[in-house]
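Subgroup meeting minutes
Present: P.N., E.W., G.H.
Scribe: E.W.

1. P.N. recapped why we're keeping a running log of single-chain structure predictions: easier to compare across weeks, and new members can see raw inputs and outputs side by side.
2. G.H. added today's entry (181 aa).
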Amino acid sequence: MTLNETSATSQPNGSKPTAKELIVNELREIFAVMIYLWVSLSLLSTVKSLVLVQQGINDFAHGYQVAAVLALGAAKVVVVVQDLKPMRAWDTRPLIWAVLYKTTLMAIIVDCALKVEEKLFDHHAATQAAVAHPIVLMVAHQTVLFSIFAVLFLIRGLNRRLGPGKLSKLILAAPSQAEVA
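Output recorded in log:
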């Protein structure tokens, strides 16, 4: 559920939600995306750190800290960017195409942000020089990043198309007797 959907469906009588309700909904949305991204980026960081350990570089703690900071920043970016017109351009097409489109755009945005970060802070130079196969690491990183965003946008797209709360109810609630029989 996005802020635009919240404003249309928050109040049963059709009135607009208060500023406090909008802020709470946005924070809830950012928190959910942040937790998902943090877990996903931590898994990616673990794989990267395992590769670096083979080269004698122990980067586990730093990797998890970076994953937490990136998850917080990326969650806010995802929540803000998802309502921009370019991100909604394919929402009228089948869900798979909308997910692939949004995933590609977010992967490009994240890659650009990471390149800027590398240029500003230059903290990856030492670890990249020690990696025996940087192309393999880059392809693996892009594949995992693409997968992370594909799952995120698939779940968000299903939630949007099924209606707010129906997907979580479908996943988390026990089936009714009629559904079991």
